[in-house]
Write a sequence for this structure.
């Protein structure tokens, strides 16, 4: 299996929406479920165009051949008071877990964030998502707090841990 990593383009919109439906049905650790993201293909293409043109935000794909098997997102801010920070998010299809793809996507995101001059990376992770927390700790993220009842999924509440990585130290 050879995985390649690249930035997403507007032409990936349909495949990426399909990917979000699959991954949303495979895990309850994301902000959406099996319905995926509520965008039309055109809306998603416009979002991807904005990402591709942004100086401090980027959407990355992990591909096995033509198949999207993982994605990751760096979201920087246009607000001068927040532009030293970027938020990260990552997911990988279940069949591909444990093969280093999450780590590969983290490397892509952190390298991009460094290039943009970001100083502080942050993310939110369901507190019981030990696999993701282990991935983030591996890259130096530490937890600074817990948000109780962050998610409500099928009537059940779940807290989220807030984690950061300071790129200046
Ligand atoms: C979290 C996720 C992105 C990890 O992706 P992955 O491709 O499996 O990650 P990797 O193979 O690079 O493994 C990364 C690290 O996870 C940890 N890990 C792997 N298997 C684990 C397990 N069974 N239990 C706990 N930690 C585990 C290890 O620290 C591993 O690093 P190492 O192999 O160098 O020791 C993936 O499981 C996923 O998409 N989950 C569903 C969506 C999700 O939770 N996204 C994060 C939302 S905040």
């Amino acid at each position: 299996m050879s995985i390649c990593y690249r930035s997403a383009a507007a032409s990936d919109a349909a495949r990426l929406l399909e990917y979000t439906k699959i991954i949303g049905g495979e895990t309850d650790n994301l902000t959406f479920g099996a319905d995926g993201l509520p965008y039309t293909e055109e809306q998603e293409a416009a979002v991807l165009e904005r990402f591709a043109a942004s100086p401090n935000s980027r959407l990355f794909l992990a591909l096995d051949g033509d198949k999207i098997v993982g994605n990751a997102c760096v979201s920087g801010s246009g607000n001068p008071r927040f532009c030293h920070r970027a938020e990260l998010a990552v997911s990988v299809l279940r069949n591909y877990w444990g093969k280093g793809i999450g780590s590969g996507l983290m490397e892509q995101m952190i390298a991009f964030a460094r290039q943009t001059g970001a100083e502080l990376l942050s993310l939110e992770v369901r507190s019981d998502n030990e696999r993701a927390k282990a991935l983030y700790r591996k890259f130096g993220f530490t937890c600074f707090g817990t948000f109780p009842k962050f998610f409500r999924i099928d009537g059940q509440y779940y807290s989220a841990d807030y984690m950061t990585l300071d790129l200046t130290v």
Notes: The two ends are 36 Å apart (CA to CA). The CA atoms of residues 16 and 68 lie 7 Å apart.
